[in-house]
Amino acid sequence: MEIRPILSALSRNRTGALLIATQVALTLAIISNAASVIRDRLALSERPSGVTDEASLLTARPILNARTDLAALIRADLAGLAALPGVRAVTVTNQLPMGRSGWSLTFSAGREESAVSTNASYTFDGGGLLETLGLRLIEGRRFEAAEVRELDPEQSAEPPREALVTAALARHLFRDEGPWVGRVFYSGNGPQAGELRIVGVVERLTTPWGLAGEEDAYTVIVPQRFLNSYNYYVMRVEPGAEAAVRTAIDEVLTRNEPDRVNTGIYSVQELRERRYRNEKSVAWLLVSVTVFLLLVTASGIVGMASLWVNLRRKQIGVRRALGATRADILRYFLTENLLITSGGVLAGVLAARLLNQLLVRELSVPALPWDFLAVGVACLFVLGLAAALGPALRASRLSPALATRSV
Amino acid sequence: MIGYYFRLGFHQLRRAPVLTLLIVLTLAVGVAASMSTLTVLYVMSGDPIPQKSERLLTPQINNYPVDGGPQDGNLPTLLSWTDVRNLREDGRGQRRSGLYGISGILYPERDGLKNFFVDGVAVDADFFAMMDAPFREGRGWSAAEDSAEARVAVLGTQLARKLFGEGPAVGQEVRVDEQRYRVVGVLDRFSPVPKFYRLDGSSRAGAGEDELFIPLSTAIAIEKDVDGTVSCFQQTGPGFQGRLASECVWLRYWVELGSASERSDYEAYLQAYVAEQKTQGRLPRADARAIARDVREWLVEVGVVDDDVRLQFWLAFGFLFVCLVNTVGLLLAKFTARAADVGVRRALGATRGQIFLQYLSEAAALGLAGSVVGIAGVFGLLRLLASQSPDLEAYAQMDAVMLVTTVLVSVLAAILAGLLPTWRATRVLPAVQLKTQ
Q1: Residue B60 pairs with which residues in a beta bridge?
Q2: Residues 6+ apart with CB under 8 A from B340
Q3: Which pLDDT score, from 0 to 100, does residue B81 have?
Q4: How many angstroms from the chain centroid is the CA of residue B158?
Q5: 3-state helix, strand, coil in chain A (%, to 5)
Q6: Is the ipTM of this complex over 0.85?
């Protein structure tokens, strides 16, 4: 196939070709960046929390601000919930992965100013936290029931002395690969920081906030029941029993203390959905922008190709009369489209990189990987050919007799 | 003449209906995508209290310990009780109010209503006048009631209606947790967007009305727990008293000045305050300082407009731009097909200027049609945005300004897209066209 005549024809009709190429370039720049943001957000919302089988882990948070014997109430609630058919394990804690509110403290590897220091989520094990959540212990031991103390914040602020940490936090604090059991770290930083000894390491447990980076897996677990009215009860439920357990939970909680308000029962999976709703909506918005963009670009190519076919009916007729086959005509228009798309794609790759640099700098968007760009390029070539195919086929079916008709 | 061209333009829309439909739809989706994201951005970066945003200041004081807390030079976005108490007692400015978030269980006395959870804020007497909060019934409490730690409350419209129906709420009592409050006033739809007075940078939540307002002095006296962020960088004593005595930050403070020109005086006062506190052994950092921000500066500091919103906005405008380029192509096709018409008109004496005006009017007519479809699209998209992310709900609201802007953007986009095709139309040589007829 000769490209020369196509190029010379294009050079006589630059406007249309330039318009299509520009559109292809802009589309490529936008969709490749959008796709990389979409993947980033979806990956963020699908990170493991450390909790096994999130759908069958139910949480309830009944709130009561009246001054009652909270220690006794919590014990009664736990006993009542554990006795429910279909409930395998129960615990009480102050926060949950992706629960969106919780405690955070500064922890450091030493008391000196230069010591590594970071914020980490501060989770309370009210007895059986690891078993209930299904956290994997990779080193050391879990807390025994006897170690869990009931802490009344109105009476005491005495800090705990022993803790479990996540592997990610230990790795960050100590800058090594362990073993970490028996080592000491500090809550707070500076000379008054409290000392904590590591008794065990869990593989992973994420924060209530769903932070962006590795910090999301920085968690410290201490053995205590905090006697305030904002605790979560967490229940591991047998498969299939979930619906029945949900109503039963409400009954138990209301029976033990009718005055409190239950803020709803959610599985950890539902907590995940609520936490990442914004990320999902950004991803969803970008998916629709991408789809519409491809549609608009395709319609532009169809429109322009049809216009050219119409303008060149006579020339097509002459070519066919002089012996060009249908395939020749088809090939001509498809090659022409390929050339224009190639020009657009070339400019588009450049534009995509530039746009990405701008977005990375201004809007903390992830860097654009080359494979995304490659997929985008392939997409646009396919789109261009598919869009041009219709008009090109129509052109190939034009009768040679057209050439003889006067226009 | 333009009016005639415009009518002609509308008439032409019916010719080549497929092409017309394509152009209108292309314009409409571009406009809908860009204008809905622009609306969110516009509402988010709007001034919630334009009449006095320059006179409302909120201080930030660096009370971090020497070796603890962030070392990045940023100031805490919240204040300690010690600082709020001192600033209130110093009494600078025309009006002033400390503030922190509270919540509790409300025990309704009306039959058939179960206990429920309410959100609210503890504020000082000046708060309502300061924020220009409108009262539907009653009034705020007095300074005397503030200092007497009176058990009084102001309710939001919805809460008052829920509890007392259409009857009077003032004079009634509400029980929240273990405390009873006498209702002294009911607000009439008080929901500045963004809810600047409560934002502390921890979330975008600018949505929803606060339902319950109680005096700050009362909240402190009854040890009402905080519903909101509490940041501590040192070990504190037990209980609420431990927190009051600590350097934990968990309150906001707003001051209203008589005029914006008093700001430098107020900032000088804050510097003097920091120096004075240092002599008492507080604010230990060498670079300890205090600054004041007005409402607009505060909204920037707490990052109401986050990167995701900006990203959506820029990508949507990129999308509009692609639609624009596409429209240029489609208009080119539409106008080229009518070269013969132009030839006849030119031969009958129309000048190039007249042809230019006529075709540009047609493009504008297309833009107008696009804006109608586009506005429907904007409403649909805003609703979708609000349902997808509840955080955005308060911001996904269309107003008259944005409505007019949408029409303008659409028409302008169409005219812009029409420039090149129109210019090409005026280049038509009448002789060539007439010959081929």
Answers
A1: B291
A2: B433, B436, B437
A3: 96
A4: 21
A5: 50, 20, 30
A6: no
Q: What is the 3-state secondary structure (H, E, C) of B304-326?
A: CCCHHHHHHHHHHHHHHHHHHHH
* Nearest CA distance, B29 vs chain A (angstrom): 8
Token pair for B113: 């209503």
Tell me, yes or no, if B418 comes closer than 8 A to chain A by beta carbon. Answer: no
Q: Which residues of chain A have pLDDT under 50?
A: 407
> What is the predicted pLDDT for the residue at B254?
96
Per DSSP, the three-state class of B106 is strand
CB-CB under 8 Å, A65 with B105: yes
pLDDT digits (tens, 9 = 90+) for B15-47: 778 888 888 999 999 999 899 888 888 888 888
- CA–CA dist A59, A231 (Å, integer): 10
Give the pLDDT confidence score for residue B68 in this predicted structure. 67
Tally the C-alpha atoms within 13 A of residue A251's C-alpha that lie toward its C-beta: 8
What are the residues whose beta carbons fall under 8 Å from the beta carbon of A361, sequence distance 6 or more? none
Q: How far apart are CA A44 and CA A42, in angstroms?
A: 5
Interface touch B388/A280, C-beta < 8 Å? yes
Residue type (1 letter), A400: P
**pLDDT by residue (tens digit) across B191-209?**
888 888 988 766 555 556 7
Cα–Cα nearest to A41, from A236, A282, A360: A282
Higher pLDDT, B14 or A254: A254
B245 with B259: CB under 8 angstroms? no
Q: Which of these, B100, B101, B102, lies nearest to B84 by C-alpha position? A: B100
CA of B24: which chain A residue's CA is closest? Answer: A296
Taking the CA atoms of residue B119, residue B122, residue B126 and residue B127 in that order, the dihedral angle to the nearest 10 degrees is -30
Q: How far is CA B221 from the centre of its chain?
A: 34
Closest CA to B99 of B255, B240, B204: B255
Listed in sequence order, the residues at least 6 apart from B236 whose beta carbon sits closer than 8 Å to its beta carbon are: A157, B242, B243, B245, B246, B248
Asked if B234 is an interface residue toward chain A (Cβ–Cβ < 8 A), one would say yes
Q: Please choose, from the candidates A162, A169, A160, the residue with its C-alpha nearest in 3D space to the C-alpha of residue A205.
A: A169
Q: What is the DSSP string of A215-279?
A: GGG-EEEE-EEE-SS-PEEEEEE-TT-HHHHHHHHHHHHHHH-TT-EEEEEEEHHHHHHHHTHHH
Amino acid type, A65: N
Name the strand (E) or helix (H) holding A141.
Answer: none
Which of A24, A289, A361 is best to mutate for the B interface (most B CBs within 10 A)?
A: A289
Average pLDDT, integer, range B113-129: 92
Chain A (315-354) residues lying within 8 Å, Cβ to Cβ, of chain B: none
Report how far residue A190's alpha carbon sits from residue A184's, in angstroms, rounded to the nearest whole number: 15
Q: Answer whether B295's CB lies under 8 Å from B48's CB.
A: yes
Q: What does the block give as tokens for A231?
A: 């605790």
DSSP A59-97: EEEEE--S---HHHHHHHHHHHHHTSTTEEEEEEES--T
pTM for this prediction: 0.83
Are B16 and B369 in contact by the 8 Å Cβ rule? The answer is no
Q: Tell me which residue has tokens 């220690």.
A: A71
- Which tokens sit at A130? 């690891």
pLDDT band at B375 (very low <50, low <70, confident <90, very high): very high
Provide the CA A19 distance to its chain's centre, in angstroms. Answer: 36
B333, A306 contact by CB (below 8 A): yes
* Closest by CA position to B75, among listed B269, B288, B360: B288
CA separation for the pair A61, A266 (Å, rounded): 9
Min Cα–Cα distance to chain B from A88, Å = 30
**Average pLDDT of the segment spanning B71-83:** 88
CA gap B287, B434 in Å, rounded = 83
